[in-house]
Design goal:
There is one protein chain. The longest helix has 36 residues. The chain has 9 helices and 12 strands. With 334 residues, the protein is of the alpha+beta class.
Length: 334
């Protein structure tokens, strides 16, 4: 490889991560924009300081004394200038630290200021998936989903964060900064999505073998679309429309699946795994590990540990016919 080609590769490869799918450089909320502004200010100020230090270091390497000069000779005027310069730089350093601290403090006050929330959500971290519960004053409007969060555009959202096992970290960089989920302690974040879109998030605290495959999607909908989605999620499961789906529901309820998963409107009432009442309305399976299709559902049921080693879902031996009917049933839970 030529030197020119190698230089091109070195310069281009870092740009491969600049697709803005999961990036703090693509803010779509006031909170994310505040964090980006702080980031830019800190990088600019500290970058300028680094350049000044490097320039000073380069200047200090120049020979200052003529050849043959007495190494013990002292220049009082030069020493006074050096003392004044170092003192001035120490004062400037203190002022820069104070200014950056003040900006950081003011930014945190704006980020975590109290604001009346229009939507309240509780997110519970598990190894390795997200349980999402939409709270409401009316008990019949409360529902649970998994790994995807829908929010209305322009409405403040309050999310409480808890964990059932180890420390996780909720991070959707286009909407807000990181916040830990700590067992036995509740944390909270707030954000307001300003435009529709799908914004990827990720657990940002190492939480075990499948930490890298613990992602989530935040989907910002127009208020009318969000209202329709929420009404659909509150409703019980849709009645199976085909003979295959009805057989699949019977097989699902009779299998060990019903001990861990809930499908409202059926005898399946487990709470150890993700809620499945409207599973097919989601975009991915297993916290972003697979696209949600009938084929991926079958693959996940047959061998979850081959796809995501270490998960808590047990291996369940199923005959091919039962597997087909169950996957067809789950694929129809919209």
């Amino acid at each position: 490889m030529s030197a020119r080609r190698g230089l091109v590769v070195i310069l281009v490869v870092p740009l491969a991560s600049c697709n803005l799918v999961q990036s703090p450089l693509n803010p779509v909320s006031p909170q994310a924009r505040e964090l980006l502004w702080l980031f830019v200010v800190f990088v600019a100020v500290l970058g300028a300081i680094w350049l000044a230090v490097m320039a000073t270091l380069a200047l200090s390497l120049r020979p200052r004394r003529p050849a043959g000069a007495d190494p013990l000779a002292v220049d009082p005027a030069y020493e006074r200038r050096a003392v004044a310069l170092v003192t001035g730089l120490a004062i400037v350093t203190g002022l820069v630290v104070l200014v950056l601290t003040g900006l950081s403090y003011a930014g945190q006050r704006r980020l975590f200021g109290e604001e009346q929330a229009g939507i309240t959500i509780r997110v519970l971290g598990h190894q390795w998936w997200w349980e999402v519960r939409y709270e409401d004053a009316a008990p019949d409007r409360v529902f649970t989903t998994a790994n995807e969060i829908h929010v209305p555009v322009g409405v403040p959202v309050a999310i409480s964060l808890d964990s059932t096992d180890v420390i996780h970290s909720f991070w959707v960089p286009s909407l807000m900064g990181k916040q830990d989920l700590i067992p036995g302690r509740s944390n909270a974040i707030r954000f307001t999505a300003e435009r529709p879109g799908v914004y990827r998030g990720q657990c940002a605290e190492f939480c075990g073998m499948q930490h890298a495959r613990m992602s989530l999607l935040v989907i910002a909908d127009e208020p009318a679309a969000f209202a329709r989605w929420r009404d659909g999620q509150v409703a019980p499961r849709r009645e199976p429309a085909s003979e295959e789906a009805r057989a699949g529901e019977a097989a699902f309820v009779a299998a060990p699946c019903a001990l861990c998963h809930q499908v409202r409107g059926t005898a399946a009432a487990g709470r150890n795994g993700p809620e499945l009442t409207h599973l097919a309305s989601r975009r991915t399976l297993a916290a972003g590990s697979l696209p949600l299709t009938r084929g991926s559902l079958a693959a996940w049921i047959v061998d979850p540990h081959g796809i995501k080693p270490g998960v808590n879902m047990p291996l369940i031996p199923l005959e091919p016919d039962r597997l087909n009917t169950i996957s067809a049933y789950l694929a129809g839970l919209e």
